[in-house]
Amino acid sequence: MREGKLYIGGKFVNSSSRKKFISLNPANERPFGRYQLGNKNDVDKAVQAAKKALPLWKKTPAPKRAEILFEVVRLLKKHKERLAKLEVLEMGKVYSEATGDVQEAIDVFEYMAGEGRRLFGYTTPSELKNKFCMTIRIPLGVVGLITPWNFPIAIPAWKLAPALICGNTCVLKPSSDTPGNAIELIKILEEAGLPKGVVNLVTGSAKDVGEPIVKHSGIQGLSFTGSVETGKFIVANAGLKKVGLELGGKNAIIVMEDADLNLAVDGIVWGGFGTTGQRCTAASRVIVHKKVKKELEERLLRRVKRLRLGSGLKRSTDVGPLINEKAVEKSEYYTQVGKKQRAKLLCGGERADMKGFFFKPTLFTNVKPKMRIAQEEIFGPVVSLIPVSGIGQAIRVCNGVSYGLSSAIYTKDIKNAMIAAQEIETGLTYINSSTIGSEVHLPFGGVKDTGNGREAGIEGIHEFSETKVIYIDYSGKLQKAQID
Ligand code: ADP
């Protein structure tokens, strides 16, 4: 079995708890890795180490910090296949998607390394003579990064790369379902030459590691991806830290009567069942014009029935397992809720008869917008078809949920496309493409209960830095703004 340690002050160490926990391979339920069960004491040590490393890292010129990030890119490329395989074994997604996850980490480190020679501020004229005004970007300080299991390397990378290029030092807590990839990423950062203490990693439970990070007075910024419940806890307990939250979605694909249905089916299958429905941007609702509902149902059903479940390492597999037993129970539970509320089950709706956390790809139709399966995040391979009679109703249904992360519309009519682009309340809208597929040079995040802040792109830099204003008065006399 793999063994993983904490990483504090540049050393791999045991937890002071002397306890360990294991992760499972979700495709066969066998133990996969054994990790340190960290505690508050370990978090304190990690924060101290990050604090100690901060002055030097902050003073290191950003283009020099970037050199280390470029080296991370080189190493990630070199180890791409090994990391992807590890991800399949601990998280369960199919291999091709796992390589995509590693590629996303490569992309974000490359993009953020490039920022080392930008980190732009701006200048603007002063209202007074012989006075100069400009802005620069400064790091927050020590930042806490709390990550989930569904993108076990990309999400830590999305947070680490901008945090580091901006000059912050970090304490990372990965999900207990998938600490293995985060530990491998740390090893790569170390090999790339990151100074001791700049990044620290503490594995362990939400209660003993996550909560002490959220509440720690030595931490100035938090970046979190996970559930709404945890997001609410963070907002209530983070004090005055700068907080970025990405809390999931109930994303919809709208299919208009003029849509290319083949394209729409491709997008629904990819968005609904890719990563076994376990993406924050997964398409769990299909809002379909009633004129094409029957046709879409038939085509979708044919495709979904053909999806093959299995280990993500097998080339023939389309859909991998869910992450754990609790996730299977959640999909089972929502299937029962859907049936009880009189949605029509077209296929799936039950565990697959095989070892591992497998759940059959599930389609519901005749779903009403307010039914629970159309409102609550299931995070499994469960897709609900909701019939509507026009673009206005489609938009209202799309917006009638608490979340606001991603959305998509399939249409050939530019008017429908533009209405959707402007009126859907989400952070991302795709036209004639599925709800998933973010690129790292554009901002990512949502509105409403999906949280706040944006990751990646230039806005990822803003997330992990503050603007500082510098006034230079070379008049040689006291000049008073607003008065002279
Ligand atoms: P998910 O359902 O995606 O696992 P969670 O919000 O439960 O979403 O977990 C995401 C990450 O947040 C994990 O690393 C988890 O350990 C951590 N976490 C969960 N609850 C808390 C909490 N109260 N305080 C800090 N971190 C937490």
What is the structure about, briefly put?
With 484 residues, this protein is of the alpha/beta class.
The geometry reads as: globular
Q: Please, how many domains?
A: 2
| Class from secondary-structure proportions | alpha/beta
Q: Look at the structure and give the mean pLDDT.
A: 97
Put simply, the count of helices is 14
The largest beta-sheet arranges its strands as: 15-16-17-14-13-18-19
Bound molecules: adenosine-5'-diphosphate
CATH superfamily name of the largest domain? Aldehyde Dehydrogenase, Chain A, domain 1
- The CATH class name of the largest domain reads Alpha Beta
For the record, the CATH architecture of the largest domain stands as 3-Layer(aba) Sandwich
Instruction: Give the strand tally.
Output: 21
Give a quick account of the main beta sheet: strands, pairing sense, barrel closure: 7 strands, mixed
Helix content estimate? 25-40%
In the predicted model, the low-confidence regions spanning at least 5 consecutive residues are none
Strand content: 15-25%
Distance between the termini: 72 Å
Please tell me how large the radius of gyration is: 24 Å
CATH topology of the largest domain: Aldehyde Dehydrogenase, Chain A, domain 1
List keywords for this structure.
single chain; 484 residues; alpha/beta; Aldehyde Dehydrogenase, Chain A, domain 1; Aldehyde Dehydrogenase, Chain A, domain 2; 2 domains; 7-stranded mixed β-sheet; 6-stranded mixed β-sheet; 14 helices; 39% helix; 21% strand; globular; binds adenosine-5'-diphosphate
